[in-house]
Design a protein that fits this description.
Number of strands: 21
Shape: globular
Low-confidence stretches: 1-46
Order of helices and strands: EHHEEEEEEEEEEEEEEEEEEEE
Distance between the termini: 39 Å
Mean pLDDT: 85
Largest sheet: 12 strands, mixed
Number of helices: 2
Helix content: under 10%
Length: about 280
């Protein structure tokens, strides 16, 4: 997998865009989509950099893998695009002197079809700066299948997933962050949501199934599933286990500090979780 450092992104994008009118249309559509969301937590198109995607043509439903040094990761779907778009906003989280954060983060994005359509995104800090920089990554895809994310000191949002979900935020030596997952279709695959600290929300539509294990060491754990059959429930302040709709797919969510909530509801993609 080849990598490009961020200072070359603008030049790379100009070359890429000049050779592909379709990408210009995609980018313009995405700008409009971002503007329509009105989401103030998303970095603006002007503040972030477009990451060139190398490898095989990526069009249609896609699985996303993100391995981030630190920072926010947001993966969303948009009907206004036909190919994925990746944006990154590097930032300093500690004293980097006069160095530009963009020069201290190396990004790569690569698509392949060897095991289904997969988009792999990696952000790596330069040696010695691992705890001093972060990369806020935004990914937009036409349709999302599976998703896997590894990051720390940042929030993770995955909206529109239809397959398996595997998200870890933080480690024994780095802080975590909140996790917000909203499924676009009946969730019948495995879900694993782990953070060292922060709230966890999982919203999925009726018809979803799962053998659920929720744990919070310092918070509440709950399931709201009035429209689905729930059995074998064991509940206490920071723990909830049970089975939704006789499901065998494991749904695990764990945080050391924060609340954990699973909700079965119509149109979870439009759901805005509260604390």
């Amino acid at each position: 997998m080849s990598r490009q450092t961020l200072p070359f992104f603008n030049q790379s994008f100009r070359r890429f865009a000049s050779g592909s009118a379709g990408f210009g249309i995609v980018a313009a559509s995405l700008v409009a989509a971002i503007a329509l969301t009105g989401c103030s937590t998303m970095p603006s198109w002007q503040e972030s950099k477009i990451v060139p995607i190398e490898g095989e043509e990526a069009a249609g439903p896609i699985s996303v893998r993100v391995d981030n040094v630190a920072g926010d990761v947001r993966v969303r779907t948009s009907r206004d695009i036909t190919r994925p778009v990746v944006n990154v906003r590097p930032r300093a989280t500690g004293d980097i002197g006069r160095s530009d954060p963009e020069s201290l983060v190396t990004m790569s994005a690569h698509s392949s079809t060897s095991q289904g359509l997969v988009l792999q995104i990696v952000a790596v800090a330069e040696p010695g700066y691992e705890n001093l920089v972060a990369a806020d990554i935004d990914v937009w895809v036409p349709a999302l299948v599976d998703i896997q994310v590894r990051t720390s000191a940042g929030r993770v949002q995955a909206v529109g997933a239809t397959g398996a979900v595997d998200i870890e935020v933080g480690t024994s030596s780095t802080p975590g962050g909140s996790i917000d997952v909203r499924a676009a279709d009946e969730l019948v695959e495995s879900v694993r949501l782990i953070t060292t600290d922060g709230n966890i929300h999982l919203a999925m539509p009726p018809g979803s199934t799962g053998a659920i294990e929720l744990t919070s060491l310092d918070g509440n754990a709950e399931v709201r599933a009035a429209s689905s059959p729930v059995s074998r429930v064991t509940a206490s302040k920071g723990r909830w286990s049970g089975i939704i709709a006789q499901g065998r797919n494991a749904i695990q969510a764990t945080t050391n500090e924060g609340n954990v909530r699973v909700i079965v509801m119509p149109d979870p993609v439009s759901y805005m979780p509260s604390k």
